[in-house]
Design goal:
single chain, about 270 residues, Deoxyribonuclease I, Chain A, 12 strands, about 25% helix, DNA-binding
Length: about 270
DNA sequence: ATGGTGGCACCGCCA
């Protein structure tokens, strides 16, 4: 192994057009190599690809009007780009590729915007649970846990009580209930390590999302950890740091989510 | 406290 440092991040932008300047400034400042974006909220013909390419970055994307939409912004050209879960449905919620990380090494990347699910018991909630099953089938069929693979994005699931403020109050929320925790665990059991939690075991107040409607949520630690960087073991063992950029949530006109980052020594 | 904010599209829906 060499001493190559390589950084990946994930960010629910809540409109890439509104957040474009923040994203480009953040990438320049942090020197992150690959950024997975969710909720771009734009059709492909209106996606600001030129502005991103003018900044010297590569970008691939798949969106739709108003809602969802995913993108991958990278310093090297992504290879083998694919969209959706394979049935032509929901292509604006999954984008994946292979990234050259240098020295001839490759890392596969799967970026998902998991359906939020509306509320427990709804058809949309059943669809969310089914979505995790379909995703597990994708990993079963097209990847192997002993290969370097990252699954990142807005999973719309709080993994553990420590990952949301006042967990007893939120039990039964569409993002925090036994069924979605089990669905997330079922996919992770395939062979993923949650690298932020790996790097910060038992650390409270580690959040990636704060409700716009709360009055002072970041300072008062009223957040949720629903954006994740999952790595297969061959990558997780080379993870040297992982963190959440809480400061970015205090930016002017911020997204309600913030950037989650992992650094690897490859 | 059953509100509150924000983005996009349109006069409401979704998060």
């Amino acid at each position: 192994m060499t001493d190559t440092r390589w950084k990946v991040a994930t960010f629910n932008a809540n409109s890439i057009r509104v957040r474009l300047t923040q994203i480009l400034d953040w990438l320049e400042r942090t020197d992150v190599d690959v950024l997975a974006v969710q909720e771009t909220k734009v059709q492909d013909e209106s996606f600001p690809a030129e502005e991103i390419r003018e900044a010297g970055l590569h970008v691939v994307y798949r969106g739709q009007k108003s809602r969802a939409g995913v993108a991958i912004i990278s310093r090297t050209e992504p290879e083998e780009v694919r969209y959706g879960l394979g049935d032509g449905e929901d292509e604006a919620r999954l984008i994946r590729c292979v990234i050259d990380v240098g020295q001839g090494a490759k890392v596969s990347l799967v970026n998902t915007y998991v359906p939020q699910g509306r509320e427990m018991g709804s058809d949309e909630f059943q669809y969310k649970l089914r979505w995790f099953e379909r995703l597990r089938e994708l990993f079963d069929g097209e990847y192997a846990p002993d290969e370097p693979l990252l699954w990142v994005g807005d999973m719309n699931v709080v993994p553990e009580p420590i990952d949301v403020f006042e967990p007893e109050r939120h039990e039964g929320h569409v993002d925090y209930n036994p069924e979605v925790r089990e669905a997330l665990a079922m996919v992770c059991d395939w062979g993923f390590v949650d690298v932020v939690r790996q790097q910060h075991p038992d650390e409270p107040n580690l959040y990636s999302y704060w409700d716009y409607r709360a009055k002072n949520p970041v300072a008062e630690h009223k957040g949720w950890r629903v954006d994740h960087i999952m790595a297969t073991e061959p990558l997780a063992e080379h993870c040297v740091a992982a963190w959440i950029d809480t400061e970015a949530r205090l930016a002017e006109r911020p997204s309600d989510h913030t950037f989650v980052v992992a650094e690897f020594e490859l």
